[in-house]
Description:
- The longest helix is centred in the C-terminal third of the chain and has 23 residues, at 205-227.
- The chain has nine helices and ten strands.
- Helices cover 44% and strands 24% of the residues.
- The protein has helices spanning 60-78, 104-119, 126-141, 147-154, 190-203, 205-227, 231-247, 253-264, 288-300, and strands at 6-18, 29-44, 49-52, 88-94, 157-161, 167-171, 177-183, 269-273, 280-284, 304-310.
- The protein has two domains: 7-171, 2-Layer Sandwich (Ribosomal Protein S5, domain 2); 177-310, Alpha-Beta Plaits (2-Layer Sandwich).
- Helix 1 (60-78) packs across helix 3 (126-141), helix 3 (126-141) runs antiparallel to helix 4 and helix 6 runs antiparallel to helix 7.
- Bound molecules: (R)-mevalonate.
- (R)-mevalonate (MEV) binds at residues 16, 20-21, 23-24, 141, 144-145, 147-148, 190, 194, 274-275.
Amino acid sequence: MVCDIMSEGYGYGKVILFGEHFVVYGIPAIASALSGKTIAKVEGSDKFELVDNRPETPGYKEKKKEQQGDSLRRILEFLKIDVEKNPIRITLSGDLVAASGVGASAASCAAIARAINEHFKLGLDDEGINKVAYEGEKGYHGIPSGIDNTAATYGGIILFTKGDPPKIERISMKTPIEIVEGNTGITSDTKTVVEDVARKKEENPQEFEEIFKRAKEITEEAKEALINADAEKIGRLMDENQELLRRIGVSCDELETLIKIGKDNGALGAKLTGTGRGGLMVSLTPGKELQERVANAMKENGFMAFRNNIG
Ligand code: MEV
């Protein structure tokens, strides 16, 4: 029997402001949810199917298709939903552009978890949704730190430390600050990049120890700077964070070009965000005027640019 009730769920996109990659090793990191969301709709159907209508960076969805299938299997298995017995159609949409760096996979996992929860009346609260989204993220990441699904589920700005359970602290800023995200247009594979970092760490234990120490201090200093909306300081710390990310080998020419465009046009700080080796970068551009200037400069150089706020 096909049930005609439609259930809906959402997941936020995110920008990691401080500590991506280091967070995998237990260093605290800071992420801010974006206003862009992925929406999932679940309805009864005569066969199980996933329809993906999300806007995307060209090629993103095709490149992630296999991982998306794996992710969905993990979510259904974790929730003990038998889609042979209860076939459903899942439709993804929303205004979050699916691209590397915005937490697109996590946003879709949280959205799917919420919609399934509602459809099958599973009674999960946010903590439960976050756990399901984490299981789904394993399909894309291998062993994710959990920061992306946490930001996708809860929204806001969070200070996140990996663990079981993870430590999640909310940060609230005195005033919001404008940002511009530049998109390299390159879809990167989180699992591969995270594995490369692990290899590099094995080969250079002493250098990584020193990098991790500074990464932890940067996040701690950034927490205070964010609370006080101290844009100069946040920007300086972003630049320093980017230097550490360069040293662990996760930047690339296109990201560096975007960072230079941002800085040359007045951004107070700029760094890659998320996985790196493609995907997105984030620049701190307080005030509408500076935000416009930086976004336009990126566009004039042939890149896609997204305007947003943190806080
Ligand atoms: C990817 O958005 C963030 C990484 O730190 C991986 C993770 O935290 O699982 C690169």
